[in-house]
């Protein structure tokens, strides 16, 4: 195996505020451009980008150099200074990197513990990389292990029962602030995956009137049909802003609504407040819109109260989930470490074969009168000797072998 390390470089809600996270997030369209460009710099790589994290995973034999390439790539692609980005980045390697991904896929590293959307986002990250280029075995195996861990946590622990998504948490925040949704008119902007989850959460919570709009009107119509909502053309959105009690945005369009858009909507309803929940990443609504009179603007990071409430409910389930993560991590690491031994054995065999052929050729030049049968006998003899000599070391190394043994082999034979 050429790569000796798994490397993770990224940032998350643990290390970076929303105004930094949104600058380095990747939309689906951006990933199509970014993944081939990143591969040219660092080789096989996968980007996990959600509302709470942007993380790059790669397999490399030069982790320090690769880390610098990843940081440079993020800086250049998103137009953000490295010195601005660097304080918010974290790095993990090998088992720690794998454990982190397994915990992410299992909802254990989420802003909302056990949230249900992240497993699909990890799966989508693998799919996006597979569509952009062939994902090599180490990263493919790593991500499939993480997905298996996430599925087991969903199936085998209480963390997967009535799991709370970011979208449901957002709707719960609306209820917490405004009470009964049955008397309210909600305007939802966005009919993608996040928008669908918000719409379902609103229907489950008993929303009175639900209006849906989207840049692609057909998607709004489809979602509205499924959830008994009213679809409206995207260009008519300002008219519906005038009457909405609640505006929820969940799109990939940064700066979709500015302060003036919200201010204009409020002119016709100066005494009627508007609750705005921006679930976009990057943010869809300009932060300055929150300064408009009678507007209450919230974003993803304002879900902390709901996250804390959820944390208390799920602490015992999290312990069971952590146990599953460690089981799946052990399975993956046994495989990962065996690959290094397999690589060392293969290199040893190739070195031995090269030496055998060189010495055989030298001997046969001196023994010019041999018949073809005699030459074949000598060839077979040297092959058998080489095979016998390497058998025991090869078998021993393919058992669980320590890194010290593998390195000793490389040093002894200059592999």
Task: Please specify the SSE layout and strand pairing.
Elements: E1 5-12, H1 18-21, H2 28-42, E2 45-50, E3 53-60, H3 63-78, H4 82-85, E4 90-93, H5 94-105, H6 118-132, H7 137-156, H8 166-178, E5 185-189, H9 193-204, E6 209-213, H10 217-226, E7 230-231, H11 237-241, E8 246-249, H12 259-267, E9 274-278, E10 295-299, H13 304-366, H14 372-398, H15 403-413
Walk me through what this model shows:
With 415 residues, this protein is of the alpha/beta class. The chain has 15 helices and 10 strands. It has 3 domains: 158 residues, 2-Layer Sandwich (Beta Polymerase, domain 2); 138 residues, Rossmann fold (3-Layer(aba) Sandwich), CATH 3.40.50; 75 residues, no CATH class. The chain is elongated, with a radius of gyration of 28 Å. The model has no long low-confidence stretch (mean pLDDT 90).
* Low-confidence runs: none
Q: What name is given to the CATH topology of the largest domain? A: Beta Polymerase, domain 2
In round numbers, the mean pLDDT is: 90
Task: Calculate Rg over CA atoms.
Answer: 28 Å
Provide a compact summary of the structure.
The protein has 415 residues and is α/β, with parallel strands linked by helices.
Features:
Rossmann fold; Beta Polymerase, domain 2; single chain; elongated; 15 helices; 57% helix; alpha/beta; 415 residues; 10 strands; six-stranded parallel beta sheet
């Amino acid at each position: 195996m050429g790569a000796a390390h798994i490397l993770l470089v990224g940032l998350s809600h643990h290390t970076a505020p929303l105004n930094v996270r949104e600058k380095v997030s990747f939309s689906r369209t951006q990933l199509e451009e970014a993944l081939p460009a990143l591969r040219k710099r660092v080789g096989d790589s996968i980007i996990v980008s959600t509302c709470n994290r942007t993380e790059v995973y790669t397999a490399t034999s030069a982790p320090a150099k690769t880390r610098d390439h990843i940081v440079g790539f993020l800086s250049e692609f998103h137009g953000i200074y490295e010195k601005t980005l660097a304080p918010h980045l974290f790095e993990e390697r090998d088992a720690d990197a794998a454990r982190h991904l397994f915990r992410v896929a299992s909802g254990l590293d989420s802003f909302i513990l056990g949230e249900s959307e992240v497993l699909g986002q990890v799966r989508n990250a693998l799919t996006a990389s597979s569509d952009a280029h062939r994902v090599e075995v180490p990263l493919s195996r790593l991500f499939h292990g993480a997905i298996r861990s996430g599925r087991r946590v969903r199936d085998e622990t209480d963390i997967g029962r009535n799991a709370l998504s970011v979208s449901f948490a957002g709707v719960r925040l609306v209820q917490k602030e405004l009470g009964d949704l049955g008397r309210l008119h909600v305007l939802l902007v966005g009919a993608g995956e996040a928008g669908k989850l918000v719409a379902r959460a609103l229907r489950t919570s008993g929303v009175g009137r639900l209006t849906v709009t989207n840049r692609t009107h057909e998607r709004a119509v489809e979602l509205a049909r499924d959830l008994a909502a009213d679809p409206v053309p995207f260009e008519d959105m300002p008219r519906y802003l005038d009457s909405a009690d609640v505006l929820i945005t969940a799109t990939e369009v940064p700066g979709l609504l500015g302060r003036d858009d919200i201010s204009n909507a409020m002119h016709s309803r100066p005494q009627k407040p508007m609750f705005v929940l921006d679930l976009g990443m990057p943010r869809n609504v300009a932060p300055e819109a929150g300064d408009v009179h009678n507007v209450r603007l919230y974003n993803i990071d304002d879900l902390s109260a709901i996250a804390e409430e959820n944390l208390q409910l799920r602490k015992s389930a999290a312990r069971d989930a952590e146990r599953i993560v460690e089981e799946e991590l052990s399975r993956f690491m046994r495989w990962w470490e065996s690959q290094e031994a397999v690589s060392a054995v293969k290199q040893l065999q190739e070195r031995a074969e090269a030496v055998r052929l060189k010495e055989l050729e030298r001997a046969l030049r001196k023994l010019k009168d041999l018949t073809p049968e005699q030459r074949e006998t000598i060839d077979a003899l040297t092959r058998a000797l080489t095979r016998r000599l390497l058998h025991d070391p090869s078998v021993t190394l393919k058992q669980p072998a320590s890194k010290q043994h593998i390195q000793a082999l490389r040093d002894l034979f200059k592999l």
